[in-house]
From TrEMBL:
Residues 54-137 form the HTH CENPB-type domain. Transmembrane segments: none annotated. The keyword DNA-binding applies. GO terms for cellular component: nucleus. This is Tigger transposable element-derived protein 1. GO terms for molecular function: DNA binding. Gene3D superfamilies: Homeodomain-like.
């Protein structure tokens, strides 16, 4: 049950809606509704980190502060284009938690439980579900691109255009891309009776295409194709 839903139940109960009516409305047992109402003070005091939609259990405020700061750090790293792995995130979580722990006065009774935070795999899985962060594959030039250098180059290029009085029709951009003309899709539909689909070895036959156009878009250079053969077999019927 999400934290927003729990707060909604508490708010309606405070306005006079009975527990039985809340249970029927939200499709939960009366005992579940009563448990939420017993914890209403704690639920009201929770301020989830940005991106958190689900809180599986009520934890200390120290954990909440740590995850808030961790999400800020993750966002900053994402904007910089840095790579984040599970190990890196867990290490940062332990560091943030340790800093907060040193800044927070505590008694001997809660010291053991607070110090027991290890940023384990289980914690990371739950943190990932709460915040919605997910793993993606970095493709192509985005992996090796230098954003800062690109911005500086763009500034220099703009100054060059202005100094020489070039117009958009005189400015051309050319780039290359690969065409794997034998490669099959890596996803397919199968019948409900089947559980798996036999795999296949992907074909790596590749052609290189060069595309060029001007800044105004009214002059597109004819597509250029580069290959080790003058006329590739699958393109023998095409006139270049």
């Amino acid at each position: 049950m999400s934290i927003e839903l729990k707060r909604e139940i508490i708010e309606k109960n405070e306005k006079g809606v009975r527990v039985a009516d809340l249970a029927r409305q939200y499709g939960h047992s009366t005992s579940t509704i009563c448990t939420v109402l017993k914890q209403k003070e704690l639920i009201k005091g929770i301020t989830p980190a940005k991106g958190v939609t689900i809180i599986s259990k009520l934890r200390s405020s120290l954990h909440e502060k740590m995850e808030k700061l961790l999400m800020v750090w993750v966002t900053e790293k994402q904007l910089k284009g840095d790579t984040l792995t599970q190990g890196i995130i867990c290490e940062k979580a332990r560091a943030i938690y340790g800093d907060l722990l040193n800044q927070t006065p505590r008694t001997s009774t809660d010291e053991a439980s607070e110090d027991s935070f290890k940023a384990s795999r289980g914690w990371f899985d739950n943190f990932r579900k709460r915040t919605g962060i997910h793993s993606v594959v970095r493709h192509g030039e985005a992996v090796s691109s230098d954003v800062k250098a690109a911005e500086e180059c763009l500034k220099t290029f703009s100054e060059l255009i202005e100094a020489n009085g070039y117009i958009p029709q005189q400015i051309f951009n050319c780039d290359e891309t690969g065409l794997f003309w034998k490669k099959m899709p890596n996803r397919t539909y199968i019948t409900a009776e089947e559980k798996i689909m036999r795999g296949h070895k992907p074909m790596k036959d590749r052609l290189t295409l060069a595309l060029c156009t001007n800044a105004s878009g009214d002059c597109k250079i004819k597509l250029c194709l580069y290959t080790i053969r003058k006329t590739p077999e699958p393109l023998s019927h095409i006139r270049f």
